[in-house]
Queue: 4 jobs
Job 1
Amino acid sequence: MRKIYLFVVGLLLTASLFLPNTFAQNSTQWELPPGATARFGKGWVRDIEFSPFSEQLAVATTIGVWIYDVRTGEEQVLFSGIMGGANAVSYSPGGLILAAAHWDQTVRLWDINTGNRRPLSTFTGHTGEIHAVTFSPDGSMLASGSADNTIRVWDVQAEELMAILPYRNPIKTIDFSPDSQMIAGGSEDGTIQVWDAGIGDRIYEFDEHTDAVWEIDFSPDGRILISASLDGTIQLWDLVAPGGRLTEPTQHNTPFYAVDFSQDGHNFVTSGADREVRVWNAHTRELTSTLEGHKDVVPTVELSPDGATLASGSLDGTVRLWDMRLFRGRLTLAGHTGGVKALTYTEDNRILACGTGLDNKLRLWDASTGTQLSKLNDHRGLTQAVAFSKDGKTLASGGSENGTIFLSNVSRTIENGEYFGDDEDNLIATLTGNPHGITALALSPAETILASGGVDGRIYLLDVQRRAELQILRGAQSAITALTFVFDGNHLFSGEEDGTVRRWDTLTYQEVWNYRGSFSAITALSFSKTGRFLAIGDKVGKIQLFDFDAEAENREIRIFTRHTRQITALIFSWNSDTLVSGSEDGTVLLWNTDEIISQANQE
């Protein structure tokens, strides 16, 4: 598939935090950084593609690229490192090389057979995020589409740039024609352009979509181009002169995200926001089959070259493999889920996680089972800042420009991974916090005070029961980007966009301490229940422990994580021997604090 998906959902975890050693042999624990005892989650899905002989499935995620065995569903390889996550992948025609578009604005070629962690080649030159990558069918060219409004075409053997195809807006999807003579690109502005891949001349431009084109695909005979758009239509374009739309578009009441032709040209598959995968007759445009089973939006689909298997990725955290002969599910690959917004322990030592999806609705997950529990529909649009109460029963979310905050009761019965209760969340109260845009939230342990930070650097303290303002804390020099209460509720830590951390007395409303480390914007804070450690996470994925022990040899204990995106949530276990970090990259890492301190003292 040649596309990018902003696959933002709540984090899917697969086991209890208190059993990290049981995962020592699990593939998700590959390449753990020093001091980390376990990893949960495999990163959220951006793209999927079958190998040419249908035996492998490559999954581009926010931590790298996973290679799966299609027959067994087992992980075979993980390509990850300093280049960050991958937005898109493409197999070479022979299936020996995989191209991946990485977050450092490079395209890297990986050797599939050896699993070598060093790339064979690296292509550079884009000045924006690369959204799509694809090999030409003859293997001679590699194309990449970017947010810098260009498609770059590379000579694979010479490793040289052949052409730059300019566009008016960011490129979302690209594809070569089967004879490698044409290359097409779809953009955020809803237009599709088709070029001569050899000389770079534009052949066609189609502009009848009214929203972003999320994916395009050539038919096997090269005569038709099909496109999926957020405007809720699938459109087929005639590439035989003079060119144009073949038929009236396939209409839908929700956005289409993905489309793919079968290799024999008889069918195409689609998926979108309605959670269903549809198989269509390419000749009659009639619906052949509807595959149901995903519990959330399905932004990515891919048919295997042999036509036997269909892969689909969903915001429910799964990639499903479907048998195309029987039109039923065959395998489910779990753990590919979205960025963390908030984490909390429940009273029975389970963990709940919260995050957002493409529809900007919050989702609640049971960490111990990896099951999506519910969508919190009332929180739509209020997802900039999210915080759990200490007991995990209350969720606060905000982010609107007028300072609106929702408090909801999310405590329900969880038995064997099933969530019992009303599907909708129970709204407790609507409060008004920082009116200049809410960027951070924190509930006091007793749930009596809600702290709301904003872009103006002010912190509003709100009385939850009276729904009234208690005080405004002033003194920060930049936007408030993280908040956490001390376990007694009498002190509050705040983190700022300029990297400053401050401690406030919530009884006197005075600043009592501040610290400026070598941070970018602070994005997460947590104070241990033993009163010793303050964990600080920042925008580039770095974590630091600040040790308040008077006899500590090294107060500033640095952890260099393998998170590829900003730290969004930090929590300590009850005895502070484990620190849990959640990130926008869709993973959670568990850190042994004693081991981290020991390593720091040896340096």
Job 2
Amino acid sequence: MKHQHIPVAIATIAMTALSSCDNVMKIKHLPYPETERGNVTDNYFGTEVADPYRWLEDDNSEATAAWVKAENEVTFDYLSKIPFREAIKERLTELWDYPKESAPSKKGDWLYFSRNDGLQNQAVIYRRATPDAEAEVFLDPNQLSDDGTVALAATSFSKDGKYFAFATAASGSDWVEIHVMDTESKRQLDDCIKWVKISGATWAPDGKGFYYSGYDAPEKGVYSSKNEFQKVYYHKIGTPQSADRLIYSDPKHPLRYFYAWQSDDSRWIFVSSSEGTSGSEILYKRSNAAKFDVLLKGFDYDYSIVECVDDQLYVMSNEGAENYNLIKIDLNNPSKREVVIAEKENLLENVNSAGGCLTAIYLEDAQNKVYQYEMDGTPIREVTLPGIGTVSGFNGEKEDTELYYSITTFTAPTTVYSFDVKSGESKLYLRPEVAFNPDDFTTEQIFFTSKDGTRVPMFVSYKKGLKRNGKNPCYLYGYGGFQINLTPSFSPSSIMFMEQGGVYVFVTLRGGLEYGEKWHKAGMLENKQNVFDDFIAAAEYLIENKYTSSKKLAIAGGSNGGLLVGACEVQRPDLYAVCLPSVGVMDMLRYHKFTIGWGWVVEYGSSDNQEQFEYIYKYSPLHNIKKGEKYPATLITTADHDDRVVPAHSFKFAAQMQYAQAGDAPILIRIETKAGHGAGKPTSKRIEEAADSYAFLFQNTNTPYVPVTKR
């Protein structure tokens, strides 16, 4: 039975004694810990750079553990004194408590999908025999740990649906273990693959085993030491990991990633290689051949394999097509190449092969459009979408006649639709019930001008009836890097914020891929300052046009977005009231020395290169903090198991900011335990962190929180 949307009305707002007054009571924080300043200094091409908190890089030391404990005591003491913190948490819990269900995919005789009933720490995998049949639990990750900190990092089914491989990550780490289930009995097999990172299981067509990419077991520093020499293996079901067959390795290039895939007819094996987060190379061989040859040489362009049919390889590519096209390569005569889908004015974001045709998802001003093609590239239709937003899905097998996709917006959670391949008709499959009325909110796309004259878009969402008087709190979020597109997405936190009169803003900064590779290159390496200029210009536009004011503006971002917030904070501390950098890359001179940080050199550059050092040093957040400056209220968030952006970045940034701060605004760091970079974080931890961040925001923008109750 298909689910129907039942809106839940919001009652009138009840004013409390706290919110009836104009000002929020000020809170004093405990004294910061006395953080020892060492005398470590590095020489970069004649420039002496002090690194007084180098000792905080040792995440195994007793001194670091004591510092973490002391900082958390200061932070949580402050947060506990915010009188409306619990009310925010209660409302967030209500808003989070709705069923979240993915678009289903058919494997074997079953439709599989993930579902979180509302507040479960991890989504559960279900299956049903038909779209209208009752669903049964297939795998519940919540049973893998007592506190919900073991999550599924990747899943895959054998082509015949007989086996299911799932990779588990503990406490948010990027390290995963791969396990296997028999789908008929739902019994977990003895197979267990360890020391896998940035990889899941890719099944061979015969379903007897899978390919994966792993590392040698680290000798020390599991969560901080540099990861090198990734290798591709084949694992046969029912055998120990020690018997796995080495498929590909490259001893001459220790800092490359590899991913293997075999064609459905088992005739060809491909290995995609990359040296970082952009640029790739495709290797190939016949399955019975001894060695791989280069098919598409790296690493100036990006290649992504879509399908292989009758010795014809379909590849998405930006070689000679900055907005990407789809090409077809004759594997028996690799020089014979044909453009199947030509480059368009808008970015080709993804191509799927399913149902005997191609489905191409484009990005136009950071919003999706979808087109259907025959396998030879003949256009069939533009898919009529039921709404504007971020589209994902259209996956399946060649034989499928019905596919599924989802649409997400800023003001409503993911809604799932079925798609008839032959007719092109979409039907509502699932719309979740939520504890608010989506029609109460609206989103507009605004274009503003950056420092160098570039036209940059942003999405501005708010509750209908908003008055642009400069008194509204504003949450300004950005990322700007690594070809990652910032498109409409839903967050229960944003609804809570907009209910309070807040303006919720996503900026489509340079460094992403929203407008093709030119847009990406304009925000990387020596052009990275453009990203910060775009973000600052967005803040200035919102202030000038009275959406908010400097006293009400908060900026936020995570990972590369944490770098964004840190850089903008130290460059323009006068512009914001609150800064919320999360798991940020703050030490640009040493980031490449930890875990997989070396993979970001293609995006940022390296301090080992003199020319690149010069421009990195100019914006590195840690190294541009000025003693005696009045900085905005800052809540830095990180986690003890983050082995992507190691917590030392945030530790050192917090220590230096506390040392330098001349103003009264608090500089706090919130260090989560048994958590990582963000993926797989339990719902309970997500709600707690969001409650703390928004309580800090309201407190330091002098914005009273007015409780909202359901009718």
Job 3
Amino acid sequence: MMKQFRKVQDSWLGKSVLILTALSFVSLFGISGYISEKVNNKPVIEVDDIVITHDEITGRFNQEQQKLKNIFGDHLEMNETNRLNLLADIVQRELTDAILKRTAEKHNVYISDALIRKIIFSQPEFMDANSRFSKEKMRRLLNDSGFTEQSYISALRQDVASLHLIKTPVSNLNIARAMLPYLEALENQRKVFKYIVIDPAALKTDRKISQEELEQYYQDFSAQFVEPEARDVSFIFLSVDDAAKKFTPDEEEINAYYQENINTFVIPESRRILQMVFENQEDAEKAAARLKAGEDFYKVAAETAGQSKADTELGFASKDMLIADMADAVFTLKEGEFAGPVKSEMGWHIMKVTGIKGKQETSLASARKQIIEAIKKDKAYEYAYETSAAIEDQIGGGASLEDIAKANDTVIHKVSGLKEDGSFKTATDKFRRLVGNNDFVDTAFSYNVNEVSQVFETDEGFVIARVDAVHEARPQELSEVRGEIEKMWAVNEKSAIAQEIINDVVHDLENGDKIDDVARRFSLKLNTSKPIKRGENFQALTTLQMSELFKEELNSPKVINLGEEQMIVVASKVINDKKKLTDEEAELLKRKAQFDLMRAAADQMTDSYGKDYNIEIDYKILGLAD
């Protein structure tokens, strides 16, 4: 079950449990008023008594999609293939988390509140200008990250439990030096691949859809051929940007903002640091002696502390991010020097400085324009919230949308034919993005005709809406959807032709025919890759797909799914180079193999844990299976 959506996990295993993305203080800090309602809908994942529902998976998907949009903006292409891959990845993570949660309960792995507090209080992102924990800063970052308070404690406990159940048991796995010659031989091996790409969209059909097929499609997919409910909506829009133009901050406000946010404008000196940690002083002293003798830090960390390269690298850190016992020592070092061993609550530390970034400071004069805009935006939001509260009172008193518009000296805008997917028939160009917003659509479909909504906030500003008319859903006539059916039929017809070609090509290749002859016989374009090493790729294949290809024997066909396209590949030639790897290359190769071994062991452990439970997954409800 677990292997159906196994992805290459190239990050979580090497991360410290102190580097977390979710935050919450519900049970630890007495924050009240948060009520979690479990949506009673159809289960998607069940691990014994742990149930993850369709709404929960959908919520995770929407959250991940929004994060991607924030990063990539308009460059994000969320096509069907990307959507299914993201959904499959979420199912994999949720399933793994559920298995580990159940295993933690089974083996009484208990994570105390004291440990949770200690981890949270250690996060530099939550520190104020005086290096003290700031609950306000934590809450602001939490909101910016799109997390609820309720989500944090469980996520944090899950991370710590995973550390005990997975990371610690596999962290001591090692690759014996005797294996290096074999690893070196694999690293020196290259293969040449010949391949044929079958694109169904590029194929031609030799016939048209018949009337009988047309009617059958219309019948089979009748649920799809429905004109959905649509609504005509009037609305008032209060722009935060327009409100901001009304305010001009004075010098006192500008200076106060600069001082209150000094960490934004003054970035302290930071250093790129390597670290190894030991349980006892004796091992730490032996490692320090080897470093003094000139040995490589990574090598010593791997052989004495059992640390991978990812475990050893802390990246750039400022002084206040380091444990107190090490901070002063590290920040007196020159680049290339190391300090330690020094004892802390976590063990004996040795740290090396491999890079230095000097203090970066943006003066008040340089930041002035930025500060003014920030203050104006803050004041605009305060004004908007006050105005919204006044409008809420008007709505409570029975005021119409026209009354509200008149009282606030604004105009009423309209959108017609708005559907639940955010599409619409007509809307003012200025508000095309606004009316397609999820909050706007949800509001429009939550009220009855002539009801005035509560004030709701969007990315663009504050909105009050009224439903003017509801156009009920109706079945579409065959004549209305004929073009859509013809396109569906053509896609399926071409896919069937493509699959027939693939079956014939693979059949001939398995019978011993050469791919050059087969490609010529079927008039297919034959491509040849350059000599490829393990770890390289062609045609944008994934690491997992390349790994599978390298396992195939010469001239053995492999069919690879490229989304809409299919690729038939054979390894046509093996080249065994005799290049001798340098010590550094050999060490890097060993570390990579060790990491791959740890990752595989982690996957096997998770699979092994899962065999103890009754696991059920409804792939169909998410569209991940037929």
Job 4
Amino acid sequence: MTNISQLGRDPDRSGRRARPGRRRASGARRRSTADNHASWIERKIPHFEVLDTEALELIEHNADTVLEEIGIEFREFPSALELWKSAGADVDGERVRFPRGLCRSLVEANAPREYTQHARNPKRSTIVGGERTVLAPAYGPPFVHDLDKGRRYATLEDFHNFVKLTYMAPGLHHSGGTVCEPVDLPVNKRHLDMVYSHIKYTDKPFMGSVTHPDRAEDTLAMAKLLFGEDFIEKKTVLTSLINANSPLTFDATMLGAATIYAENNQATVISPFLLAGAMSPVTVAGTLTQILAEALAGMAYIQLVRPGAPVVFGSFAAAVSMQSGAPTFGTPETSLVLYGAGQLARRLGVPFRSGGGLCAAKIPDAQAAYEAANTLQTAALAGVNFMLHTAGWLEGGLAMGYEKFIMDADQANMIALLLKGVDMSENGQALDALREVGPGSHFLGAAHTLANFETAFYRSPVADNNSFEQWQQDGSLDAARRANGIWKQMLREYEPPRLDPTIDEALVDFIQRRKSEFEDRDY
């Protein structure tokens, strides 16, 4: 099986098929590498922090003031209001105001610092939290884009393609959730096909449906067919995204899905979704205050539903242009928000989630590359434990890009090496090489170089480092064109992981039965 890191080792980087002999020679290595993908990145470098203790304590104080004086609305979900009333909160209609420190105490006393999300292949199970980083693809775009067909509505075939590409990308540890919206299927039934795709075409962990409580129940039912009911009762096999309806609101859809997952001990990512200037204040400190208040309220609610249920402190923060109102990404202010949110999550003692390869670019161009790289590196340095939107994001999240996916997956491979830090072993110190070469010579033929040349330095499958003449001879391809060839080759050589036929049959029967029980709807 080919994956993106192995393609980087092939001298033919144009994306064309390698010659048959070369493919045969590399086949065993490709399969071996595919079988040994890491399940997370073990962080070996310090976090980058921008706020001192005094600033953090002030933001925490301000967030408690927001929770106490302004409160959070829990809309059209009476059971949540009853739980808060029983916990000592002041409930006025749908507005909940919290005694100072209540939300924090519920989270600190009950929420786990980390949790294992089990995959159907135990080798792919991952751990979210601690000094680990788990990377997942983009989530939610209704459109897809590639260089051949341009921008168009996503289909189930596109969904399958991105699940397969994620499975084959060694830098991505998690299959994600709604990697794109298959709009060729009814809204109220497409979740069944999406969850099945994550089960069928990959054996990495995946996310559950959250667009209706019934769809969360369906996800759990399918997970029980895959893992067994006894396993689900004791273990976490789903991590699902619960967005606050910012500012300062949780709606019935998100609360319903969150409640179902929490009751079944499945993980939820509680994510304020903020575009500063529109859905939060225009300042970094003000936005951080709102993020913390919303995240605390959501995570505390989960602990009321089921103490000890896994939660992730989520954050999605960008800004809007004060000229046009359009979202912007990869800017210094949003980087500062991300760094600060990471610090707040660590002080609270829960895993932290943020993006990702975010950009506002419409095509995989220079803007897409630098905005995505800015956000990816910021997230990595900030200490993100669960990085959603790592690969594929275009157009402010409206489109999932095939070429952009490959370019971002390349960055994900680099993040893994960055976070591993500096090799200080005897080999890493390289004193033997320095003694052998001495003054005035070079290291190209040194024994140390020859012993390490196969693994020394990251080799990008997308970037071209050849001479101008060689680049011309190879077709004068830019990075996007090279990525175009790579994703096509990966899909040609995709091989599905084995799924027990009995389980597969049970899943298909369940999907067919559920689809027959209600009419198609567009909501």
